[in-house]
Amino acid sequence: MNVTHELNMSKIPNELKLLLEIIKSESEVDNEHFSKPDWDLFLELALHHRLYPLLYTKIAKLDYSWIPKKVIKSLHIYYQQNTFRMLHLSGEMEKLCKLFTENKIRPLFLKGPILAETLYGDISKRTSGDLDILVPINDLDKANELLIAQGYNKDEYIQTVLNDWKWRHHHFTYFHPMKGTKIEIHWRLHPSPSKEPSFDELWERKRVSSLTSYPTYYMGYEDLFYFLITHGARHGWSRLRWLQDINQIMQKEISWTFVKQLLNQTQSSHIGGQSLILASALFNTQINEELIPLLRKRPKKLAKAAIYYLEQMVNLHNEPVPEDIAKYHSNHLFSLMSIQQKGVYFLSILHPFHTDVETLSLPKKLHFLYFPLRPFLWIWRKTKNYVLLRRILR
């Protein structure tokens, strides 16, 4: 079923609307409604939203003589570069899967080439900058040793106190300086306060990929749907590739009854509704009748709020994020939480942060004292910053 939802898209760039029309259409798009597009912006948006591989394959099939040749040539170059990168990642994925499996680590690949092949049937039609691998938390040390031995360097950006890394964060990052390959080792799908299936549940429902000769595993379609909607929502759907993924997975044979149970268990039914409304509005996604009950008032409100991320090229991955965008995104993330998750979030604020250690350094055996000291350390930091600000303004 196709559901039309009225979202205010008047501030979305005309060039982005043209891009979406080309991707959605099975025939050549008439350019009458898209007069004098800014082709530099068109190309920039295709790159930002990571839709350029799919866009190029659409343009290459049809006669788009009204698109400047330099734009098509640029898309072709980026398309080729992405294909080579995905082939490289496919080889590294198979190698790491074999390495982990032989060392009794169960790896589940979350995205990368395995997702491109699963959803699009062709690794060249989707981009990926790294490999995301989910492993049991008890195997993190072993996985770290294996990756270091393979020449990977760990990015020690996580600052932690009293083991809060286990729930405040959800992955470690590794980079191979010679191969130029980035790896993210996950022990959770998302950071707290998300609710999600256990690793054993995900492993029990896993699927095997046909992309590699060595058995490589990824999540079952129902779990993958849950992961894709919650991952995209957590990033504000600021890259339309994530909504295109939703459009693709909706075409798979999925137990939607189980999906609804899973979304209910993980308190994310409203996020499922948000993703379907956005996918339907932007990609004409066909929505299964069983999922219509998800399209309620709250999901509609969340979908309307996500349009903000499409009105400009919001990049949440590059620090520092502009203050106005950071504030909007923080509020949007809070709006995605269930009542229970909001309760967990407020409780997590009472747990010591690494900034408390920076404010007052205590021996590790006395770190428990940061719990009663946290309010005072917070006040001290605020007071210190206020005094510093007054000195600067004098």
From TrEMBL:
Pfam families: NTP_transf_5. It comes from the Bacteria. This is Renal dipeptidase. It comes from Lederbergia wuyishanensis.
